[in-house]
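Hi everyone, sorry if this is the wrong subforum. Our group has a chain we'd like a structural model of before ordering constructs, and none of us has done structure prediction before. Sequence below.
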Amino acid sequence: MKDEPSRLRDLLGPLGQRLGMRDPARTGLVWARWVEIVGPGIAAHCRPSSLRDGVLRLRTDSPTWATEVGYLAEEISRKVNEIAREPLVTEVRVWVKPFDPEPDGGSRDRATKETPATSREPSSGDPLEALARARAAWARRSQRERS
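Answer:
Right subforum, don't worry. Here is the predicted structure as tokens:
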């Protein structure tokens, strides 16, 4: 009798658990639906780099974006957990390192230029705009914590 090949999902489960992932398929949702989670403007400047033991590490292309994304950490965590339908992310950590070009030769910066001006997401890579949004997010967060 011929053995049937193993399903990739069955192989990834135990391997993912050894790497700190409860469910690799759900973890993959973060990468697969990243633009949906944060919007195209932020996705142009921020990417997930790892998710282990509930800690989602995000890589940004500048300190200004790291600050803004840091203020959005709770919202990002909430959206990821909503999409995963389980508490996949318990903490978000942000770090800075400029991006390499996309594998297809393109650049994530293109997504920023294609973002409509009416979008709530950043419409440019202007650090002053990002700083103003980060300050506003900080003020909202501080207000919620005082309430």
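For your construct planning: The beta strands are 46-52, 55-60, 91-96. The CA atoms of residues 68 and 134 lie 5 Å apart.
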